[in-house]
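Issue 218. Parser rejects a valid record. Input:
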Amino acid sequence: MKKLKHIRWGIIGCGNVAEVKSGPAFDKANNSSLVAVMRRNANKAKDYALRHGVQNWYSDADALINDPDVDAVYVATPPDSHAFYTKKIIECGKPVYVEKPMAHSYQECLEMINVSEKYSIPLYVAYYRRSLSYFLKVKELLDSHAIGKPRSFSIHLYLPPRNEDLDRMNPHWRVKSDIAGAGYFYDMGSHQVDLIDFFFGPISWTKGVSTNQAGLYEVEDMVAAMFGYDSGLTGIGQWIFTTHQSAKTDLFEIVGSEGKISFSSFEFTPIILKNTNGEQLFDLKPPQHIQQPMIQSVVNDLIHHEFVADNSRAAARTSKIMDVILGRYDA
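Output the parser choked on:
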């Protein structure tokens, strides 16, 4: 891969996630710019380009991948095409930043890593919470032993159905297993499983059960899991996506030998630290473009090799854990 001083990005799949969360960040990051976008609907691709000041737009992915002005590509399509596009882009000699979950299955993640290593081309996965000050603060508290030795952790995510979930004749792609891999657990729970890996390292073992309780769509709407480490650290998680609004919960807690840390995974409520010194609150809000810190880290890695950003193996571990919980992979 050639050495670069400035990364010119292309996006495959300039849909909702690229509007605010990620797309503008490619221009706002240092030594980075967004020069091309692609969407199968040509009118929507052109509209995105005009609204965001992007010079080139395409309705054909191959045209963007082979554009000589594009140095690296962000894949923001649904998971069923992540492996397909990643292989094409890397074989063209260009680095890839792909949305989470990394792929449609753990097996596809391994295929992506293999092609990355074969061509020595970097592959990054958008588990951007690892780069946000909010979760870095939790990691700092753990690493400084603010709660002593971690003993256990728990995750509770209870959400009411989305409006689109009520349309049984036209379900959203996020609840179509052939596109998303599974349901909202694969989409949202992947961030939380990745955070477990970020905070404590690779998970040693996991067990889980999943079911469809409300019958709004075909995939699971409830998941429960146990996690364990050889050190003795254990954890539990429960995800329900068909609760009443009054039961809505987003809580991640870590209990240690000398205290407890409580925080949220998606709401960015103040982090609460309780230990022998009393109670402390840390109110850290995400940036406007929530992926910008991660994108900056990827750019820095591509230019200066400053960041150990090859998080593809950690991302694959997350997919493996989810597949084991859902009974899709026998560890």
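Fixed in the parser; the record now loads. Residues 7-128+290-309 form a domain with the Rossmann fold fold (CATH 3.40.50.720).
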